[in-house]
Amino acid sequence: MAILVYADHNNQELSAATLNAVTAAGQMGGDVTILVVGDGCDAVAEAASRVQGVVKVLVAKDASLKDQLAENVAPLIAKLAPGYSHVVAPATTTGKNIMPRAAALLDTQQVSDITAVESADTFIRPIYAGKAMATVQSTDAIKLITVRTTTFAPAEAEGGSAAIEAVEGTGDAGLSTFEGAALSENERPELTTARVVISGGRGMQSGDNFKMLEEVADILGAAVGASRAAVDAGYVPNDYQVGQTGKVVAPELYIAVGISGAIQHLAGMKDSKVIACINKDEEAPIFQIADFGLVADLFAAVPELKSELEKQGIQAR
Amino acid sequence: MKVLVPVKRVIDYNVKVRVKADQSGVDLANVKMSMNPFDEIAVEEAVRLKEAGTATEVVAISVGPEQSQETLRTALAMGADRAIHVVHDGELEPLMVAKMLAKIVSEETPDLVVLGKQAIDDDANQTGQLLAGLLGWGQGTFISKLKIDGSAISVTREVDGGLEKVGLKLPAILTVDLRLNEPRYASLPNIMKARKKEIAKKTPADLGVDTTPRLKTLKVAEPPKRQGGKKVGSVAELVDKLHNEAGVI
């Protein structure tokens, strides 16, 4: 068996999510080939060739592939797929956008967002935002899989020496054009890939008060998130939202501040490795799932947390 | 411009999900069901397009059991003009639903199909992209802004790192994210009016779609329970535990 892993990248760097997908692919049993699709992406292909456990790197370079538009990339995946038992992509927004389109071209029912590999055809995936875990067996000849990156350890980025081979793209489908990106300006890591997340809820009382969380986030190298209550109250934009209908995160440390812990918020963060919370209401449901709960007024505790971190010289990793 | 909006009936997002004792699935008996929240946003966007004079007709579609009619009535009460119900009691997989939708698209010839980015039950996030692939149309997924100018449309997509703008030719598929709009509540007069609107019924067989699932669900289990509940007495203790005991900072 041979497994094709679709590389997530920005034409300059191979994203960490790809390394998690390589680990998942390895567990399916077979030689792992990485497919790099883009333009001017030689550095990415070289990085992919150094990933441990990878036997080959396929690179398709073309102006029509630069922005990884699904309309132009999916036909290439569909063309290559018959040589493989599985095609795997990290469940980033790029993977989620492209893979089902390729699945349509291959007449395959994709398995989305898997959190564990049981065997070559059987996978575990969360449903209902993780409130239940389904074990599903694919009957399709070629399995198309997206991988929830937070549940697979990253493959070693160095040590491999896979051969790099060029493949032809399928050209511009002429259906879509990339008009530009406005990637978040802030220096903080992205919510879904951050190692530490600090989120605020309705208890923050205003958008301005989120500055307190940002100061702590900057010390820890954390992303800042929010509960739906805080988003609905207009404190922060919707893209901060962690929860069933927002982003699902599973960082090493999740700090919930002024968040009561509604079911739909817990659904978005309960797979975090360690959960800490600060809330003045000791009956709040968030305490039931927190590893370390502090009953305190956040307006005193958060500034104190900042000064304590500074005092101890704790820095972002 | 004609707009199709597929909607799904799912467990209401406020309901606590319970796994059946025999691990065959999630208990849907006597549970409050609602329209998938992302689909409400899709309906709202389509209705706004009609109110702005851009769309001429909004058609809601649902694939599902008899009760999916209620979900379609909600879409009609929000402002959809008519509805199509593909009655299907069995398991719903995104590929099979996309094939049914593709057939309906070929009959209805809309300019735009607007869907929720994912359903909050199976969380697959596939149907819109599958439909776009089956039809060979352009796809604007996870959109938070939509601009239509004649036959060209421009969408702002929510991506992991921020936002992305993509231009699409019509006809096209759009899947919507939370920030696109705030869906309205249907008013009582509109709920009454919706009762008179037409819901056409079809079956998967009418559409020529095989409903044999491709995935076998072997088991549905509760997620592992967290051992939480420990409290700390001070900020200093919290920092100490996180740094020295858990080793996460």
Helix content of chain A: 25-40%
How much of the polypeptide of chain A forms β-strand, as a percent range?
25-35%
- What is the averaged pLDDT score of chain B? 96
The major β-sheet of chain A equals:
7 strands, parallel
H/E element string of chain A? EHEHEHEHEEEEEEEEHEHEHEHEH
How confident is the prediction overall: mean pLDDT of chain A? Answer: 94
* Helical content of chain B (DSSP H or I, runs of 4+): 25-40%
Structure annotation, total helices of chain A: 9
User: β content of chain B, as a range?
Assistant: 25-35%
**What is the H-and-E element order of chain B?**
EEEHEHEHEHEEEEHEEEH
- The helix-and-strand class of chain A reads alpha/beta
**Main sheet attributes: strand count, strand direction, barrel closure of chain B:** 9 strands, mixed
Question: What labels would you give this structure?
Answer:
heterodimer; A: 317 residues; alpha/beta; 7-stranded parallel beta sheet; 5-stranded parallel beta sheet; 9 helices; 28% strand; elongated; B: 249 residues; two-stranded antiparallel sheet
Topology:
The complex is a heterodimer of chains A (317) and B (249).
Chain A: E1 2-6, H1 16-27, E2 31-38, H2 42-49, E3 54-61, H3 70-80, E4 86-90, H4 93-106, E5 111-114, E6 116-119, E7 122-127, E8 132-138, E9 143-147, E10 163-166, E11 176-183, E12 196-200, H5 210-220, E13 223-226, H6 228-232, E14 253-257, H7 263-266, E15 274-279, H8 286-289, E16 292-295, H9 298-311
Parallel strand pairs in A: 1-2, 1-4, 2-3, 3-10, 4-9, 5-9, 12-13, 12-14, 14-15, 15-16
Antiparallel strand pairs in A: 6-7, 7-8
Helix pairs in contact in A: 3-4, 5-9
Chain B: E1 2-6, E2 9-11, E3 33-35, H1 37-51, E4 57-64, H2 68-78, E5 82-87, H3 94-108, E6 112-116, H4 127-135, E7 138-149, E8 152-159, E9 162-169, E10 172-176, H5 188-194, E11 199-202, E12 215-221, E13 231-232, H6 235-245
Parallel strand pairs in B: 1-4, 1-6, 4-5, 5-11, 6-10, 7-10
Antiparallel strand pairs in B: 2-3, 7-8, 8-9
Helix pairs in contact in B: 2-5, 3-4
